[in-house]
Amino acid sequence: xxxxxxxSPRNFGRFAPSTTGGAHPGTLLAALLCWLDxxxxxxxxxxxxxxxxxxxxxxxxxxxxxxxxxWFGLDWDASERQSDHRDxxxxxxxxxxxxxxxxxxxxxxxxxxxxxxxAPDGSYRYSGSCRARVVSRADWRRCPEPxxxxxxxxxxxxxxESGLELSGDPARAFGDPLLRRRDGAYAYHFVSVVDDEAQRxxxxxxxxxxxxxxxxxxxxxxxxxxxxxxxxxxxxxxxRSGEKLAKLHGAVSIExxxxxxxxxxxxxxxxxxxxxxxxxxRCLPSELVSTxxxxxxxxxxxxxxxxxxxxxxxxxxxxxxx
Length: 322
Fold this sequence. Notes:
single chain, alpha/beta, Rossmann fold, 2 domains, 4-stranded mixed beta sheet, 3-stranded parallel beta sheet, 12 strands
């Protein structure tokens, strides 16, 4: 709420990288497109550092991500770390506990995997075999086992702004989602939905690899009584491994990139890879705002290779979105 008691507008965009490693070209493309989308509309955009994965988010990763995005030329209207908002996540989880739809799950990862049913995002669908083990307000905090939500949501009917089909039956596709993991960390989909609501996010711009999980996040929004943001999913940078194209992750670090590029050179290389500027252009993100339009961004995924002698090498990867 604002000082005058009125609800603040739900107009924030957000870039929400997982801090499980350093920035790479795919991170920078996603950050750039999210930032340009907001700046070209004159709407605010937040940086949300998703640092809840205790196994993979190591000391220094958060600071490195902030530093790399700043060096690249991106600024934010708000910035937060998910780990600073555990009380927020606990409060929403307790609301679900009070509704009697949270239960403790004793199934191991191996048992769930052995069921052999893949969810759309590549995880394994949970069968709901522990549904009878409902937790109460008196005992859920002390429970040492993972907590799951008894997902009771209708099929989702949704397309994103690019026309990408996001519809589906989340309960059938994913089963009951995790809310809190065995190590006490809150689960990705749950906290993403909670934090989007807390930050008044009305627009989500992100890579197409995250599209399959949108129906699950929409189902969580519905169960919590939250409005659904507008979505846009964009192309990915892919790398070739043998005959297969896969999402570009850690093949080249930002430290390696900085041996070949300054910020304007790297921004130009990444922007040109998706069609925003001509090949060889040098530019900073702020110089792209006035001409930004989604019709200029590649619909197809982009194959990118790294050669330390010449930098990023770009080609098209039609028909691949994995």
